[in-house]
Amino acid sequence: MKEYIRHINKDFESRARLGIMSVLLVADSADFGFLKEALQLTDGNLASHLRALEDAGYLQVLKQFIGRKPNTRYQVTVQGTAAFRNHMDALERLILTNKHQ
Amino acid sequence: MKEYIRHINKDFESRARLGIMSVLLVADSADFGFLKEALQLTDGNLASHLRALEDAGYLQVLKQFIGRKPNTRYQVTVQGTAAFRNHMDALERLILTNKHQ
């Protein structure tokens, strides 16, 4: 298989997951409501993608209180940052390959 | 939803489909065996992705003979080229967004 295709990470291939990673890397951390609004996903769909990314070790969940109100935030792990960077690099090579025709 | 995320095309989001479109745009057209070898997919998996891309109007199937042997080739349509370019542009904006941190 072509090198740049092999490095495309299946954990990130859906638009929802690309969006989650992208928003979290720009925002550093975000809560469920912010992600839902930014990505226009349903609760169930967003929750299932967040769970999958957490299970892969790419996200961590931060539980805290704002005043007395519980607040759950999501943050990309070091491993997630590295994996997403590799994925972006693979996509970039794919794009370059398709520009050089 | 962020503009660059909205333009990511779900028809192209799997690695297999990115690979198919990329190989066909570079090679102009290719037969099943060539795609299978290039992308390391099973017959069933490749056939199902080709069918989906054809149904979306992004690929056309060219049936011809090489000598007496039937040969089926796949080629990207004008519509497919435009749609894939939009997808690549959206991914490029995603990449740039994540580089500017």
Automatic annotation (TrEMBL), chains A, B:
Residues 17-95 form the Winged helix DNA-binding domain. Transmembrane segments: none annotated. It comes from the Bacteria. This is Winged helix-turn-helix domain-containing protein. It comes from Larkinella insperata.
